[in-house]
Amino acid sequence: MTLSFLDSLQPDLDSACEAINSRHAKLVGAQLPDGLRSHFRELARYIEARTGATVAMMVDMCCGACMAEHNPEFELILHIAHAELRSTGGAPMKHSRVLFIRHQPGLEVEESVKEAIPMLTAPAGVLTTSTHADRLPGVLRLLKEAGLEPQTATGKRTGGRGIILGCDFSAARKLAKKVNSFLFIGSGAFHPVGAGIATGKPVIGADPYTGQALVYTDIKDRMLRKRFAAMELAKNARIFGILLGLYPGQLRRRKALELKRLLEHEGREAYILAARRFDPENLSHIGMDALVSTACSRIAIDDDARYPIPLLTPPELDIVLGKRDWNDYVLDELG
Ligand code: SF4
To answer: Is the pTM of this model over 0.90?
Structure first.
């Protein structure tokens, strides 16, 4: 049974209301991912009816817990639907005034998992995102009954069992030598394709939204062909821009400086470009031939078609400069 939006935020939502009351907060910020923004009004009404606070929607796009940050105008910030991150670039994140509220809609996964079972080989690793993490016990039971010897590991950045992020596949990598296949519970191709690249093992998806099982081989091959084309183009680039993301969970100052030194050592010009969020507008008219992103790993993979010049990840830059072999292609991971 799928839960209503407000029920899908419990028990964290009521705990947040208690925290707002105990801190006598007057103005509270709410960060929601795109897909949940249409529910902001019911969220605000619910909280305002139970507390003395007014809730403001923070309308800057919010794609992950890496963007959770405190703003002095708000006594508290509610960060909806992303699991709190443990670290980024080794630095601890300080979230004393950010409350993380899980969004777990309780979608039915049995149908898609049963469809995926014949495609899996034992032992099978199990991966998901924080949205479907509460489904894991039921999924593990189904796989065990099917003789698939299910296994899970905890992710580095979230510390959650089986949880992978677009910038952290450690929950998959830890199992790579122990399992023969992976089941991914969730939607979208980035996570399962990334897990496949990170482990070299087949990943079968069980999508709770469509009720179907999926293989991602074609999508993965298409993505790798696009990345190869971007790297080929960047080989001729003379002037590089290095993107330094200023969101607390994306900030990799040391990495950006290291890449600048590396590029200069290789006879290229390199400049650091800093912003909280990058888009084709704030990166226009910059006079660069190619970009390398040390910010969210997904910028290069998901958004490259929006830019007129090649946009690489740091491991891809290594390939361009001959420091890494194409056969050792990896996605960029933060943390
Ligand atoms: S860095 Fe990117 S992939 Fe990682 S949590 Fe942030 S938005 Fe998600």
So the answer is: yes
